[in-house]
């Protein structure tokens, strides 16, 4: 496929005002300024000056975990029977034929991170997936991608009602630490058994096994944290166990931006196109991502779908611009920034040779509520 006369918003340097982009298979093969000569038999699309962007990336959703239009039958995001469940895998719950995948794709959102909710101190294994396909095994970008952990109100509220721990922030943090220490000890016993034939292998522990990739920094830990104190608890635990961590939501992160710069903390900001539905959200403001990015905190914008329907991801970025975020930085916050924060920028987030051919074409500003993609190309195919 060859797209000609497009304004390439590369997210990898300067834009190309009158450019072309060629795909081969499911990857970007070539791009540059016009003119270009089509190859024999190549499908040619004339963009007529429209803007071509990398497919949008939403780095925190529960897409396919809470199905659209269903209640209990389609609610598979929270296992509220045990506050520590790192062994649970999102890919075993995601329904890729939920119509919200199509709504995401039609809005130009081609990659998402999805997974468990925040009822548990440790909720399970998140997955980075494409929004196109019918079998989740064929849609995976990386799984497991991250371990979901949660601080603050949600674990407290769920288990206080069951008259069991955690019912305080202290208990939530202690449960996380306890399981990480168990996994660390399990890791040491495995390593010793491999080196010493006289030392028995430890009894298989599925919870500890699930945490080993996080302890080895092979996958990330995503901390659900709204309040400033919860954010710093996440940082404290992550530093203690040398985790590759990201703060999700960061509702009060704008109040502590300087501290987050000092600790090198990355934030997935949102949702903020919604009401302040609980006490933790009392300081919610759509100015947060702009304040964070302006201070130098690596920042992406998220919907937390279904809290905000995923097709409104670019609208959220537009709202952030209205509230002070630099326009180009807002575009980056739904393309290259989430890709970089999630360690997936070798495949996603920008128009560069060798990256996935996930592309979206707009003939107007994509961050306005009136904008709708003129064309979406996913995996090198016009969808």
UniProtKB/TrEMBL annotation:
CDD domains: Met_dep_hydrolase_C (cd01309). Transmembrane segments: none annotated. Residues 53-383 form the Amidohydrolase-related domain. This is Amidohydrolase.
């Amino acid at each position: 496929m060859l797209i000609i006369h497009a304004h390439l918003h590369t997210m990898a340097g300067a834009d190309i005002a009158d450019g072309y982009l060629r795909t081969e298979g499911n990857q970007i093969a070539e791009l540059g300024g016009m003119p270009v000569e089509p190859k024999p038999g190549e499908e040619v699309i004339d963009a007529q000056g429209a803007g071509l962007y990398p497919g949008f990336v939403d780095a925190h959703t529960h897409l396919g975990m809470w199905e659209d239009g269903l209640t209990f039958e389609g609610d598979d995001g929270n296992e509220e029977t045990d506050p520590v469940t790192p062994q649970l895998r999102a890919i075993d719950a995601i329904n890729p034929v939920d119509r919200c995948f199509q709504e995401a794709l039609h809005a130009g959102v081609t990659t998402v991170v999805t997974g468990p909710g925040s009822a548990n101190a440790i909720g399970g294994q998140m997955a980075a997936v494409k929004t196109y396909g019918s079998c989740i095994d064929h849609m995976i970008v990386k799984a497991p991608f991250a371990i979901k952990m949660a601080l603050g109100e949600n674990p407290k509220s769920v288990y206080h009602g069951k008259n069991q721990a955690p019912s305080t922030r202290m208990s939530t943090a202690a449960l996380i630490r306890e399981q990480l220490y168990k996994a660390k000890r399990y890791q040491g016993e495995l390593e010793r058994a491999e080196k010493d034939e006289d030392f028995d292998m430890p009894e298989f522990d599925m919870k500890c096994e699930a945490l080993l990739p996080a302890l080895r920094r092979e996958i990330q830990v995503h901390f659900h944290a709204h309040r400033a104190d919860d954010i710093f608890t996440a940082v404290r635990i992550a530093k203690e166990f040398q985790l590759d961590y990201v703060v999700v939501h960061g509702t009060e992160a704008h109040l502590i931006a300087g501290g987050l710069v000092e600790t090198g903390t990355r934030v997935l900001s949102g949702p903020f196109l919604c009401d302040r539905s609980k006490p933790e959200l009392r300081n919610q403001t759509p100015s947060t991502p702009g304040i964070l990015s302006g201070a130098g905190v690596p920042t992406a914008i998220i919907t937390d779908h279904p809290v905000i329907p995923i097709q409104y991801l670019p609208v959220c970025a537009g709202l952030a611009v209205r509230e002070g975020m630099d326009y180009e930085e807002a575009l980056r916050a739904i393309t290259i920034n989430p890709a970089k924060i999630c360690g997936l920028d070798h495949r996603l987030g920008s128009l560069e040779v060798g990256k996935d051919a996930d592309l979206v074409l707009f003939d107007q500003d994509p961050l306005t509520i009136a904008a709708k993609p003129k064309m979406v190309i996913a995996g090198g195919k016009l969808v």
